[in-house]
Write a structure and sequence with these properties.
single chain, alpha/beta, Aspartate Aminotransferase, domain 1, Aspartate Aminotransferase, domain 2, 2 domains, seven-stranded mixed β-sheet, 15% strand, globular
Length: 369
Protein backbone atom coordinates (compact mmCIF):
# COMPACT_ATOMS: atom_id res chain seq x y z
CA UNK A 1 0.00 0.00 0.00
CA UNK A 2 1.37 3.48 -0.84
CA UNK A 3 1.92 5.94 1.97
CA UNK A 4 -1.00 8.27 2.65
CA UNK A 5 -0.47 12.03 2.65
CA UNK A 6 -0.65 13.57 6.09
CA UNK A 7 -2.57 16.66 7.10
CA UNK A 8 -0.74 19.63 8.58
CA UNK A 9 0.18 19.08 12.20
CA UNK A 10 -2.29 21.79 13.28
CA UNK A 11 -5.09 19.84 11.60
CA UNK A 12 -4.09 16.31 12.57
CA UNK A 13 -4.41 17.11 16.26
CA UNK A 14 -7.83 18.76 15.97
CA UNK A 15 -11.24 17.28 16.63
CA UNK A 16 -14.11 18.62 14.55
CA UNK A 17 -16.66 20.94 16.13
CA UNK A 18 -19.93 19.08 16.48
CA UNK A 19 -23.25 19.55 18.27
CA UNK A 20 -25.46 16.46 18.66
CA UNK A 21 -28.25 16.27 16.10
CA UNK A 22 -30.81 13.73 17.24
CA UNK A 23 -34.54 13.43 16.67
CA UNK A 24 -36.37 14.90 19.66
CA UNK A 25 -39.65 16.68 20.25
CA UNK A 26 -38.02 19.76 21.81
CA UNK A 27 -34.61 20.83 20.46
CA UNK A 28 -32.99 23.49 22.64
CA UNK A 29 -29.27 22.88 22.08
CA UNK A 30 -28.03 25.04 19.20
CA UNK A 31 -29.49 28.51 19.93
CA UNK A 32 -31.63 28.60 16.79
CA UNK A 33 -34.77 30.67 16.47
CA UNK A 34 -37.73 28.59 17.68
CA UNK A 35 -39.91 29.92 14.86
CA UNK A 36 -39.35 30.35 11.10
CA UNK A 37 -39.23 33.70 9.31
CA UNK A 38 -42.56 35.48 8.69
CA UNK A 39 -44.75 33.94 6.00
CA UNK A 40 -44.55 37.10 3.91
CA UNK A 41 -40.76 36.88 3.94
CA UNK A 42 -40.71 33.32 2.64
CA UNK A 43 -43.10 34.19 -0.19
CA UNK A 44 -41.02 37.23 -1.14
CA UNK A 45 -37.84 35.13 -1.19
CA UNK A 46 -39.46 32.56 -3.48
CA UNK A 47 -40.30 35.37 -5.92
CA UNK A 48 -36.77 36.76 -5.70
CA UNK A 49 -35.27 33.34 -6.43
CA UNK A 50 -37.36 33.06 -9.59
CA UNK A 51 -35.62 36.13 -10.99
CA UNK A 52 -32.06 34.91 -10.32
CA UNK A 53 -29.95 34.12 -13.38
CA UNK A 54 -28.47 30.87 -12.12
CA UNK A 55 -26.23 30.54 -15.18
CA UNK A 56 -24.41 33.71 -14.12
CA UNK A 57 -22.05 34.27 -11.22
CA UNK A 58 -23.46 36.29 -8.30
CA UNK A 59 -22.39 39.83 -7.53
CA UNK A 60 -18.94 39.25 -6.11
CA UNK A 61 -19.11 42.39 -3.98
CA UNK A 62 -22.61 41.61 -2.60
CA UNK A 63 -23.32 45.29 -3.25
CA UNK A 64 -27.05 45.36 -2.45
CA UNK A 65 -26.70 43.32 0.74
CA UNK A 66 -23.79 45.36 2.03
CA UNK A 67 -25.62 48.60 1.25
CA UNK A 68 -28.72 47.38 3.11
CA UNK A 69 -26.66 46.43 6.15
CA UNK A 70 -24.82 49.76 5.99
CA UNK A 71 -28.15 51.61 6.11
CA UNK A 72 -29.33 49.57 9.07
CA UNK A 73 -26.22 50.27 11.14
CA UNK A 74 -25.43 53.77 9.93
CA UNK A 75 -22.04 52.88 8.46
CA UNK A 76 -20.49 53.09 5.01
CA UNK A 77 -20.91 50.21 2.56
CA UNK A 78 -17.12 49.81 2.56
CA UNK A 79 -17.38 49.06 6.29
CA UNK A 80 -19.44 45.90 5.70
CA UNK A 81 -18.15 42.44 4.77
CA UNK A 82 -20.49 39.48 4.18
CA UNK A 83 -19.79 35.76 4.38
CA UNK A 84 -21.31 32.29 4.64
CA UNK A 85 -22.14 32.58 8.33
CA UNK A 86 -20.17 34.54 10.91
CA UNK A 87 -17.77 31.61 11.31
CA UNK A 88 -16.51 32.12 7.76
CA UNK A 89 -16.17 35.82 8.49
CA UNK A 90 -14.02 35.03 11.55
CA UNK A 91 -11.99 32.52 9.56
CA UNK A 92 -11.33 35.15 6.91
CA UNK A 93 -10.09 37.53 9.60
CA UNK A 94 -7.52 34.98 10.77
CA UNK A 95 -6.52 34.01 7.24
CA UNK A 96 -5.73 37.69 6.78
CA UNK A 97 -4.38 38.82 10.16
CA UNK A 98 -3.36 35.49 11.72
CA UNK A 99 -1.33 32.55 10.46
CA UNK A 100 2.15 31.23 11.09
CA UNK A 101 4.19 33.36 13.48
CA UNK A 102 1.12 35.24 14.69
CA UNK A 103 -1.18 34.79 17.67
CA UNK A 104 -4.82 35.22 18.66
CA UNK A 105 -5.93 35.65 22.26
CA UNK A 106 -9.26 34.76 23.88
CA UNK A 107 -10.71 34.30 27.34
CA UNK A 108 -12.17 30.89 28.10
CA UNK A 109 -14.64 29.46 28.60
CA UNK A 110 -15.92 30.95 25.36
CA UNK A 111 -17.11 29.95 21.90
CA UNK A 112 -15.10 26.86 20.96
CA UNK A 113 -14.88 27.78 17.27
CA UNK A 114 -12.62 30.73 18.07
CA UNK A 115 -9.75 28.44 19.03
CA UNK A 116 -10.75 25.87 16.39
CA UNK A 117 -10.53 28.42 13.59
CA UNK A 118 -7.29 29.81 14.98
CA UNK A 119 -5.59 26.43 15.03
CA UNK A 120 -6.87 25.47 11.59
CA UNK A 121 -5.30 28.66 10.17
CA UNK A 122 -1.98 27.96 11.89
CA UNK A 123 -2.40 30.83 14.34
CA UNK A 124 -0.97 30.38 17.83
CA UNK A 125 -3.67 30.44 20.51
CA UNK A 126 -3.19 32.44 23.71
CA UNK A 127 -5.73 31.62 26.41
CA UNK A 128 -6.76 33.81 29.31
CA UNK A 129 -9.25 32.68 31.93
CA UNK A 130 -12.48 34.34 32.92
CA UNK A 131 -13.31 34.86 36.57
CA UNK A 132 -15.18 32.41 38.79
CA UNK A 133 -18.44 34.11 37.75
CA UNK A 134 -17.32 33.95 34.09
CA UNK A 135 -16.84 37.72 34.17
CA UNK A 136 -14.09 39.67 32.45
CA UNK A 137 -12.58 42.96 33.63
CA UNK A 138 -10.58 45.64 31.87
CA UNK A 139 -7.59 44.81 34.07
CA UNK A 140 -7.68 41.15 32.99
CA UNK A 141 -7.68 42.14 29.34
CA UNK A 142 -4.91 44.71 29.77
CA UNK A 143 -2.70 42.21 31.58
CA UNK A 144 -3.04 39.53 28.90
CA UNK A 145 -2.46 41.96 26.04
CA UNK A 146 0.59 43.46 27.74
CA UNK A 147 2.09 40.02 28.43
CA UNK A 148 1.36 38.33 25.09
CA UNK A 149 0.89 41.17 22.56
CA UNK A 150 -1.49 39.10 20.41
CA UNK A 151 -2.03 40.08 16.78
CA UNK A 152 -5.78 39.49 17.22
CA UNK A 153 -7.97 39.47 20.32
CA UNK A 154 -11.37 37.78 20.30
CA UNK A 155 -14.08 38.92 22.71
CA UNK A 156 -17.51 37.30 22.68
CA UNK A 157 -20.35 39.64 23.77
CA UNK A 158 -22.58 38.22 25.08
CA UNK A 159 -20.24 35.36 25.82
CA UNK A 160 -21.10 31.91 24.53
CA UNK A 161 -21.81 29.53 26.23
CA UNK A 162 -22.07 31.43 29.53
CA UNK A 163 -24.40 34.21 28.32
CA UNK A 164 -22.56 36.73 30.48
CA UNK A 165 -22.02 40.36 29.43
CA UNK A 166 -18.65 41.90 30.22
CA UNK A 167 -18.34 45.28 31.93
CA UNK A 168 -18.55 48.30 29.57
CA UNK A 169 -14.91 49.18 30.25
CA UNK A 170 -13.59 45.98 28.63
CA UNK A 171 -13.83 46.88 24.94
CA UNK A 172 -12.36 50.43 25.27
CA UNK A 173 -9.54 49.05 27.44
CA UNK A 174 -8.82 46.33 24.89
CA UNK A 175 -8.71 48.86 22.05
CA UNK A 176 -6.29 51.09 23.92
CA UNK A 177 -4.01 48.20 24.88
CA UNK A 178 -3.96 46.73 21.37
CA UNK A 179 -3.41 50.17 19.87
CA UNK A 180 -0.01 50.38 21.57
CA UNK A 181 1.45 48.04 18.92
CA UNK A 182 -1.20 47.51 16.20
CA UNK A 183 -3.33 44.59 17.37
CA UNK A 184 -6.84 43.93 16.04
CA UNK A 185 -9.92 43.54 18.25
CA UNK A 186 -12.70 41.26 17.01
CA UNK A 187 -15.96 41.37 18.99
CA UNK A 188 -18.21 38.39 18.24
CA UNK A 189 -21.80 39.60 18.61
CA UNK A 190 -23.61 36.54 17.27
CA UNK A 191 -26.11 37.13 20.10
CA UNK A 192 -25.69 40.89 20.24
CA UNK A 193 -29.31 41.71 19.43
CA UNK A 194 -30.42 40.03 22.67
CA UNK A 195 -28.10 42.23 24.76
CA UNK A 196 -28.69 45.81 25.98
CA UNK A 197 -25.46 47.20 24.51
CA UNK A 198 -23.30 46.71 21.41
CA UNK A 199 -19.81 47.55 20.21
CA UNK A 200 -21.13 48.52 16.78
CA UNK A 201 -21.43 52.14 17.93
CA UNK A 202 -17.64 52.22 18.45
CA UNK A 203 -16.82 51.34 14.83
CA UNK A 204 -14.68 54.04 13.28
CA UNK A 205 -11.95 54.33 10.66
CA UNK A 206 -9.53 55.27 13.44
CA UNK A 207 -10.16 52.11 15.51
CA UNK A 208 -8.87 48.59 14.82
CA UNK A 209 -12.25 47.13 15.80
CA UNK A 210 -14.33 44.58 13.89
CA UNK A 211 -17.75 43.34 15.03
CA UNK A 212 -19.21 40.09 13.69
CA UNK A 213 -22.92 39.31 13.53
CA UNK A 214 -25.17 36.67 11.99
CA UNK A 215 -28.59 36.17 10.43
CA UNK A 216 -28.83 32.71 12.04
CA UNK A 217 -30.32 33.73 15.40
CA UNK A 218 -32.53 36.80 15.45
CA UNK A 219 -33.32 36.61 11.74
CA UNK A 220 -34.34 32.92 11.91
CA UNK A 221 -32.07 32.03 8.98
CA UNK A 222 -29.73 29.38 10.41
CA UNK A 223 -30.44 27.16 7.39
CA UNK A 224 -29.06 29.76 4.96
CA UNK A 225 -25.70 30.41 6.66
CA UNK A 226 -25.27 34.17 6.32
CA UNK A 227 -23.11 36.39 8.49
CA UNK A 228 -21.25 39.68 8.29
CA UNK A 229 -18.56 41.92 9.76
CA UNK A 230 -18.71 45.63 10.48
CA UNK A 231 -15.42 47.47 10.76
CA UNK A 232 -13.02 50.03 9.27
CA UNK A 233 -12.84 49.95 5.47
CA UNK A 234 -9.05 49.60 5.43
CA UNK A 235 -9.34 46.40 7.46
CA UNK A 236 -12.20 44.83 5.49
CA UNK A 237 -10.52 45.66 2.18
CA UNK A 238 -7.73 43.27 3.13
CA UNK A 239 -10.26 40.45 3.55
CA UNK A 240 -11.27 40.69 -0.12
CA UNK A 241 -7.74 39.58 -1.01
CA UNK A 242 -8.27 36.32 0.89
CA UNK A 243 -11.90 35.35 0.36
CA UNK A 244 -12.70 33.04 -2.54
CA UNK A 245 -14.24 34.66 -5.64
CA UNK A 246 -18.04 34.65 -5.77
CA UNK A 247 -18.12 33.01 -2.34
CA UNK A 248 -21.55 34.40 -1.44
CA UNK A 249 -24.24 32.92 -3.65
CA UNK A 250 -27.12 34.89 -5.17
CA UNK A 251 -29.80 33.25 -3.00
CA UNK A 252 -28.04 34.25 0.21
CA UNK A 253 -27.64 37.80 -0.99
CA UNK A 254 -31.32 38.09 -1.91
CA UNK A 255 -32.35 36.46 1.38
CA UNK A 256 -30.34 38.91 3.41
CA UNK A 257 -31.65 42.00 1.61
CA UNK A 258 -35.25 40.84 2.06
CA UNK A 259 -34.75 39.96 5.74
CA UNK A 260 -33.65 43.49 6.50
CA UNK A 261 -37.00 44.72 5.21
CA UNK A 262 -38.65 42.78 8.04
CA UNK A 263 -36.66 44.46 10.78
CA UNK A 264 -39.69 45.44 12.85
CA UNK A 265 -41.00 41.87 12.87
CA UNK A 266 -37.60 40.48 13.84
CA UNK A 267 -37.21 43.01 16.65
CA UNK A 268 -40.59 41.95 18.03
CA UNK A 269 -39.39 38.35 18.06
CA UNK A 270 -36.25 39.35 19.93
CA UNK A 271 -38.39 41.09 22.56
CA UNK A 272 -40.51 37.95 22.93
CA UNK A 273 -37.42 35.77 23.38
CA UNK A 274 -35.96 38.14 25.96
CA UNK A 275 -39.21 37.98 27.94
CA UNK A 276 -39.19 34.19 27.72
CA UNK A 277 -35.53 34.15 28.78
CA UNK A 278 -36.38 36.09 31.93
CA UNK A 279 -39.34 33.80 32.68
CA UNK A 280 -37.19 30.70 32.25
CA UNK A 281 -34.36 32.13 34.35
CA UNK A 282 -36.75 32.97 37.18
CA UNK A 283 -38.17 29.44 37.11
CA UNK A 284 -34.71 27.86 37.11
CA UNK A 285 -33.73 29.85 40.20
CA UNK A 286 -36.49 28.07 42.10
CA UNK A 287 -34.88 24.69 41.35
CA UNK A 288 -31.73 23.09 42.82
CA UNK A 289 -29.48 24.48 40.08
CA UNK A 290 -26.98 27.32 39.78
CA UNK A 291 -28.06 29.79 37.09
CA UNK A 292 -25.97 32.50 35.44
CA UNK A 293 -27.54 35.74 34.18
CA UNK A 294 -27.73 35.82 30.39
CA UNK A 295 -27.78 38.52 27.75
CA UNK A 296 -28.27 36.02 24.93
CA UNK A 297 -30.99 33.63 23.75
CA UNK A 298 -29.81 30.84 26.04
CA UNK A 299 -29.19 30.23 29.72
CA UNK A 300 -26.33 28.33 31.37
CA UNK A 301 -27.08 26.33 34.52
CA UNK A 302 -25.44 23.68 36.70
CA UNK A 303 -27.42 21.05 38.64
CA UNK A 304 -26.56 21.00 42.33
CA UNK A 305 -25.32 17.65 43.60
CA UNK A 306 -25.98 15.96 40.27
CA UNK A 307 -23.87 15.10 37.27
CA UNK A 308 -24.54 17.38 34.33
CA UNK A 309 -24.30 14.39 31.99
CA UNK A 310 -26.82 12.48 34.05
CA UNK A 311 -29.31 15.37 33.91
CA UNK A 312 -28.68 15.81 30.17
CA UNK A 313 -29.46 12.14 29.59
CA UNK A 314 -32.56 12.38 31.75
CA UNK A 315 -33.84 15.26 29.66
CA UNK A 316 -33.01 13.40 26.45
CA UNK A 317 -35.02 10.41 27.71
CA UNK A 318 -37.96 12.82 27.85
CA UNK A 319 -37.27 14.02 24.26
CA UNK A 320 -35.72 17.33 25.40
CA UNK A 321 -32.30 18.14 23.93
CA UNK A 322 -30.10 20.79 25.56
CA UNK A 323 -26.35 21.39 25.19
CA UNK A 324 -24.04 19.44 27.47
CA UNK A 325 -21.11 21.78 28.22
CA UNK A 326 -19.68 19.67 31.04
CA UNK A 327 -16.62 18.54 29.07
CA UNK A 328 -15.45 22.14 28.47
CA UNK A 329 -12.77 23.55 30.75
CA UNK A 330 -14.36 25.58 33.54
CA UNK A 331 -17.87 24.34 32.75
CA UNK A 332 -17.92 21.06 34.63
CA UNK A 333 -21.51 19.73 34.98
CA UNK A 334 -22.90 22.77 33.17
CA UNK A 335 -25.80 22.60 30.70
CA UNK A 336 -27.01 25.28 28.30
CA UNK A 337 -30.63 25.62 27.24
CA UNK A 338 -31.74 27.63 24.21
CA UNK A 339 -34.72 29.92 24.68
CA UNK A 340 -37.60 28.48 22.67
CA UNK A 341 -41.31 29.09 22.64
CA UNK A 342 -43.27 29.31 25.90
CA UNK A 343 -44.60 25.80 25.28
CA UNK A 344 -41.09 24.45 24.76
CA UNK A 345 -39.94 26.23 27.92
CA UNK A 346 -42.75 24.66 29.92
CA UNK A 347 -41.90 21.19 28.62
CA UNK A 348 -38.23 21.70 29.45
CA UNK A 349 -39.00 22.89 32.98
CA UNK A 350 -41.41 20.01 33.62
CA UNK A 351 -38.86 17.47 32.40
CA UNK A 352 -36.06 19.08 34.41
CA UNK A 353 -38.16 18.99 37.59
CA UNK A 354 -38.78 15.28 37.03
CA UNK A 355 -35.09 14.54 36.47
CA UNK A 356 -33.98 16.56 39.51
CA UNK A 357 -36.61 14.86 41.67
CA UNK A 358 -35.09 11.45 41.02
CA UNK A 359 -32.39 9.98 43.21
CA UNK A 360 -29.43 8.22 41.67
CA UNK A 361 -31.36 4.93 41.47
CA UNK A 362 -33.99 6.55 39.28
CA UNK A 363 -36.70 6.58 41.97
CA UNK A 364 -38.56 9.77 42.78
CA UNK A 365 -37.25 11.25 46.02
CA UNK A 366 -39.74 10.79 48.86
CA UNK A 367 -42.04 8.51 46.88
CA UNK A 368 -43.11 5.17 48.40
CA UNK A 369 -41.64 2.07 46.79
Amino acid sequence: MPERPSARSEIAGLAGYHSPQVEVEVRLNTNESPVPPPAGYTEALVEAVRSIEFNRYPDRAATDLRAALARRYGVDTAQVFCANGSNEALQTILLTYGGAGRSVAMFEPTYAMHSQIARSTGTRVVVGRRGADFGLSAAMVEALVAAERPDVLFLCLPNNPTGTIDSPEVVPAALEALGEYGGLLVVDEAYGQFAPTSSVELIDESRALVVSRTFSKTWAMAGLRLGYLLGPSWCLAELDKVVLPYHLDAIKQAAGVLALEYGQSMEARVADLIAERERLTFALRELPVTVWPSGANFVLFRPEGRSGREVWEGLLDRSILVRDCSSWAGLEDCLRVTIGTEEEGDRFLAALRQVLAQDLSGELVGEET
